Amino acid sequence: MAALKDNKPKENLSSNNTIGTQYIFVALILLLCTLLFGILGALQYVIPGLFRNNFSFEKVRPLHVSSAVFWILLSACGIVNYYLASIKGKLWSNKLYKWQWYLLIIAIILILSSYILGIFGGREYWEFHPVLAVPIIIAWILFIINVFKSINGFRNQPVYIWMWMTGVVFFLFTFLESYLWLIPAFRANVVKDMTIQWKSYGSMVGGWNMLIYGSSIYLLDKISGTEKYSYSRIAFVIYFLGLFNLMFNWGHHIYTLPIPKYIQYISYAVSMTELFLLGRIIYYWKTSINTAKKHYHILSYRFLIAADVWIFLTLLLAIAMSIPAINIYTHGTHITVAHTMGATIGINSFLLLSFVFDMFNTHNQKIIHKITIGLYITLAALFVFWISLIIAGVIKANWQMHNYTSIPFSVMMHTLHPYFISFLIAGIVASIGIFIIVFTLFSYNIKQKS
Question: Which residues make Cβ contacts (< 8 Å) with residue 359, sequence separation at least 6?
């Protein structure tokens, strides 16, 4: 692993290896879009009917969700390509890499534009017309070919290589699975249709988590300057748990459907293990690296630790939500939103940003200081945001299980109004923190290239 031995300081924010950089810059723009659409959606919660005629919540929600998903996917693709090129010296095919890029960008532009124009036709999370999924499928097939050809063999590979291979394959499988509703035989049975739909989404998250967690373990070894974690027993335990998780953890999404009980039992057993072990690795890793290595990779280190904090918080909520008796209450409430937002921002986004700051390394103390301030602002505001959603979810859960016949929905929603205001303010503050991080990165990179 030559990449792990490169300890020469780099003042330029851009790496000599440009593979993946265009993915990252567009992904960061999508992250900012996610925040803007999220704030707009929160405003519409607080001020019902806001922009109803021209830019209603029905448009804002898919714009927010799709921007978040494409931020994760595009940055994960860029990072895996970047790390593979660093490890192997180059990718197997730059042509496949470029075509993957073009196809994904075309798909993202068309999808977001269709939402703005009010053109839908899909399902939850993939609300765009199914024909727009075709360039994503082709792009992902090219990605799979390039990853496997670049790796060129299965023997004696570190765990992150196995995670990347598994992640790219399973994402494509679950993405295709999410479109089985187009086949009448699946669409005709409501329970089967909902089961497959929710199952595919749960497993799809497991697919991109494989890419992110694999990159995390690579980065841990890169910072420590060893291969201790990527060949460790616990790392491979995480790999197989993650594989088992993405295959079966989706069961807790469908507790409310009439499915066999053994699916619920299996999903409950595995639902919290993967996060627990990843958190354990990061916790013990941070105690084992010396000050010099920590300082050299200070921004990546700080974002990894921030992700570890949110792994702990998300794990607590996930354990509670995975208990069937509690899940009946939480399903469809703001508690589910809190869990999703905590995992998306607190874990996935912080981990992805740690990779970004590994790719665009800087030792400029002013830049480090600004980005660290942005991180602390985001952490504090995200916690308030998360707690506000949980409290709102508890109130709604109590209403829908006990009082829905005696208290009108509008009255219940009015009682949630203070918490909507709280999560709106916290969301705006968290967005300011992330804006500081992203714009500092952009502005410094532009100065370095000028």
Answer: 15, 20, 21, 24, 79, 82
List all residues 6 or more positions away from 37 whose beta carbon is below 8 Å from its beta carbon.
Answer: 60, 63, 64, 67
Query: What gap in Å lies between CA 13 and CA 446, rounded to an integer?
Result: 9
| CB-CB contact of 121 with 182 (8 Å) | no
pLDDT of 89 reads 86
- Rounded distance, CA 408 to CA 319, Å? 31
**pLDDT of 265 strictly over 70:** no
Instruction: State the pLDDT confidence band at 286, using cuts at 50, 70 and 90.
Output: low
Query: DSSP H helical segments within 249-364, as ranges?
Result: 261-270, 273-286, 291-296, 298-322, 324-330, 334-341, 350-359
Phi then psi for 123, rounded to 5 degrees?
-115, 180
DSSP 349: I
Burial of 173 (0-12, 13-18, 19+ CB in 10 A): middle
Whether 232 shows a pLDDT value over 70: the answer reads: yes
Span 340-357, pLDDT tens digits = 787 788 888 999 999 999
Task: Quote the tokens at residue 290.
Answer: 């010396």
Instruction: Give DSSP secondary structure letters for 113-145.
Output: HHHHTT---SBTTB-S-GGGHHHHHHHHHHHHH
| 81 contacts: CB under 8 Å, gap ≥ 6 | 19, 20, 23, 91, 97, 146
CA pair distance 357, 364, nearest whole angstrom:
12
